[in-house]
Design goal:
- β2 and β3 form a beta hairpin.
- The termini are far apart.
- The protein has a domain of 62 residues.
- The chain is of the alpha+beta class.
- It contains one helix and four strands, in the order ββββα.
- A four-stranded antiparallel sheet has the order 1-2-3-4.
- The structure holds zinc ion (ZN).
- Zinc ion binds next to loops.
Length: 115
């Protein structure tokens, strides 16, 4: 499971508080196993959940309530399934490109033999 934190631009509808620096707090989404898809506000001077004590003013507040264990398990399963499907699509696209190359090559050979 991914443990990093990413920004998600489409979630800017949430009113952002100001951090202790007086700046508008940055909205981020947690992708950790403990808090999947849970949004939080953090000091814009910090670079992420793990570094928030080292950088910025330490401002951190959850936006969403914590998921129930059953919901966390469901989200984790959905994220794993999504990764599997994306990987499968990648394999199928590679196979499709290879088959298209063979099709073009075979048509080239047919044309050379016919004319
Ligand atoms: Zn701050």
């Amino acid at each position: 499971m991914k443990t990093d934190i990413v920004d998600r631009g489409e979630e800017l509808d949430v009113a952002a508080p100001r951090c202790f620096c007086g700046k508008i707090a940055r909205l981020q989404t947690s992708w950790t196993e403990a808090n999947p898809l849970r949004r939080f506000h953090v000091c814009p001077n910090s670079s992420g959940l793990m570094q928030r004590r080292k950088k910025g003013c330490g401002f951190f507040v959850w936006v969403d309530v914590e998921f129930l264990p059953r919901e966390k398990a469901l989200v984790s399963w959905l994220l794993r399934r999504l990764k599997e499907l994306e990987k499968d699509i990648g394999h199928r696209q590679a196979r499709e490109r290879k088959l298209m190359s063979w099709l073009i090559l075979s048509w080239g050979i047919v044309m050379v033999l016919l004319f």
